[in-house]
Amino acid sequence: MKFNQILKERGYHTALMTTFSFDPISYQNVSLVALNFHGCRNQALLTDTKMFNRAISEMGIPSLAGRRYHIAKRRMPFGSFHPKIILQLGRDRGRAVIGSANLTSAGMSGNVEACSLLRYDAENSYSAGIFRAVLDYIEHHADPSDPTMQRAIKQALRDSPWLRETPSEHLAQLPDGSRIGFLCEVDRPIADQFFDFIGADSIKRLIVVAPFQDGDLAAISKLREMLSVNNVWLIPDLSEQSFRKQTSDAFPWLNVCSAAALGVEPEYRRRLHAKLVIAEGESFDYVMTGSSNASMPGLFRSGIDGNAEANVVRTMTAGTAILSMQRPLGDCLETPLKPDQYVYRMRSGDNFSSGDEGFDGGYVDFEQVTMRWRPPPNEFPASEIMFFNDDGGEVLTVDASIMRNTWAEIPDKLTESEIEIRYARVAKAGGEVSEPIPVAFVNEIKKNARPPQSGSLKRQLEAIEGADSIEELFETISKLSILNYKEMEAAEKRKAGHKTGGGAGDDKDDGPEENKDADLSEGFLDVSDALVDSHGNTEDRAIILDSLRLSLNQFTAMMLFRIKSSEEEMSTLEASVISQEEKDVTEPDGDTRNTQGDDDAEDDKSETTAPKLRKLTSTPQKRNALKSFIGDLYDREADLRKAIALKRPNIEMAPDHCLLFELVVQMIIRTAALDGAKEATAEFPFPPLSNEKHGGWVRMLSKCISSHASYFADPQLLSSDLEDDQLSALATLAASCQLMILAIQKYPVTKPVSGPLMESILRFEKCRSSSMQAGSRSLITFQKFLNGLERHEVFVRMTDGLRR
């Protein structure tokens, strides 16, 4: 198996990888180039924390990490993160390489390794469940708070329709009657699962190939006892072994053989790194390849107290396993290891440790106009975070408490230097400095993870991402979006015309003169998931939706930054410098809460009336900026309710409509969460309740979610196979309903607001709970989105504020 050839196969959009050791130079110069060139752009890898820190201390942070691909670290509590997996996924196929090879130059081309190659396609459909099990295993070890890793996994599922609905299965039966299984340490030790796979078959001989063993050969002894076999053959590396000759001589059932026939050479010129177990039985041969060494941490401990390991086991016709190997394993069994070839290893390979290694500093993420530091699991008292460029020069130092698990605004002086940042370090209060920290530029990785695009799709993305204002962006969306009712009707007519072959009597709406913008909207209006050409180029609605979400979030961040800057400026001015006349204009006449009267009467107020903010110490420009922000927000909410009114029966909410809904809710809640739930002040200029047209997040969010809750309270819709964007909108709606219930309990909300709202919420929740089937993908995905929202810092802050 040649890795450089395997990675050059087309048809895969995602590569999710795990490794114990990582060589960034080899990966970026070989693997990354091969994957990118052949269309596999969504790349993320998990590596052992200690080994990664060791690698970057010697070679430095990889230049393209955090921009072209994502690196995530994994620390096991009492062992090593040791699996070696390359999982590649495509729209109609999958490929998994599971074995002993690390993502290093030695692992990819130098060592003698043992790997299993699994495929999913039309001829190998039996393996779908195993592929889902491998993906679930990677997700199990991924940090749920790592947005880039979670995005890579979500994109992998979204772009692999065959995998989305597939349940996880660790065992599968092949058409020829043989079996195959994926073994990992999550629930039980690897050896126990291997024993169960063999079942009642009687084992005649056990062959173990492994470069690392226990010093007392405990794992091999225990495996022999478990399988009740008295004939064991061990093939270790020639360079060094983990046991002494007198130790192996003490076991009469053990035969230690030379690996020379495999092409292994001593003195580290070519090492044996393969991990292979063959149990020859009466009925079948059982072959296990993977990452587990012949050691207790690798074979007999679970993920709680041992290594993370991944292996593939399969049955073969009895007596054929040795002959089926690509290398002459049989010749090794005929060559005993000579006494002078025993070289005792002074350290273990399963749990690397070094007394002089620095401490791990966690991660730094950049997204939009914000940055965040995620500390490692073993928290420590950090004082500051230092950012460095390619030359090792310090760009900026930031107080660590500002960024600890919280998105903080990027300082102005860092914005221009962001492109130069290569890595960061964390300093403890005593002055000790961490190993270099990978920096993930979330938006840049998102863009680079997109599959190759056609010219038409590129033009659509450029139109979305090139918008200079929120108004221009919404104008672009209206051209692309199914929200444009007339365009949707015209598209359906065009589609019907194409199916029937068209004709001279077709409506003018179908003609090219009346639809010059048609190619702008085809990405949204085409009901197919994707159009893939012969080169693997993909026009996918999901790519456009990702682009929309990116741009919408960018504008959200910019607008929130603008309003927060205005608040900070306003709060620095003293009320004493304002004339009494200014106070009379800006102070409210009384309580801003709307406790009486018909809520709908508020719309009759003059559109030019500005929100009245108590203690508003601001210039007219600042007041206008604030008014513009709230006005934009109100207009977006009105647009959504208008779109709801245009819906037709049996038409699902479009994915782009879901995005708009999430944007508006996000803007309203983030603005309301700026300072708990107070009355209107200079520090909190967005009151919970208001008589003004543009004021009051409770009223605005109430109208928005009432319309959507009524729309989604449809059993037929909720019981259908919903897309991820629809499920994300559902979760946003459910979380917003929880906030609104708390708001109604806290504030004396008028019945015209609270009555329809509670009715919509109760109808929606009742319909959702009865329509979404237990255990279904839709319910699981919905719950995952909802859990993420409930843990989100903004929702937590808002909920806590309402409960006080």
What does this structure look like?
With 804 residues, this protein is α+β, with helices and mostly antiparallel strands. Helices cover 42% and strands 15% of the residues. It contains 30 helices and 23 strands. The strands form four sheets. It has an eight-stranded mixed beta sheet with strand order 7-8-14-13-12-9-10-11. A seven-stranded mixed beta sheet has the order 18-17-20-21-15-16-19. A hairpin with a 2-residue loop joins strand 12 (276-281) and strand 13. Helix 17 runs parallel beside helix 21. The radius of gyration is 31 Å and the shape is globular. The relative contact order is 0.07.
SSE diagram, text form:
Elements: H1 3-6, E1 14-19, H2 24-37, E2 42-48, H3 49-59, E3 70-74, E4 85-89, E5 94-99, H4 105-110, E6 115-120, H5 128-141, H6 147-158, H7 161-164, E7 171-173, E8 179-184, H8 190-198, E9 203-209, H9 218-227, E10 232-235, H10 245-249, E11 254-256, E12 276-281, E13 284-290, H11 296-299, E14 310-317, H12 321-324, H13 329-333, E15 363-367, E16 370-374, E17 382-389, E18 394-399, H14 400-403, E19 408-409, H15 412-415, E20 421-428, E21 437-441, H16 442-448, H17 455-465, H18 470-480, H19 485-500, H20 518-525, E22 530-532, E23 538-540, H21 541-572, H22 580-586, H23 620-645, H24 655-672, H25 697-712, H26 715-718, H27 724-746, H28 751-771, H29 777-791, H30 793-803
Parallel strand pairs: 1-2, 2-3, 9-10, 10-11, 15-21
Antiparallel strand pairs: 1-4, 4-5, 5-6, 7-8, 8-14, 9-12, 12-13, 13-14, 15-16, 16-19, 17-18, 17-20, 20-21, 22-23
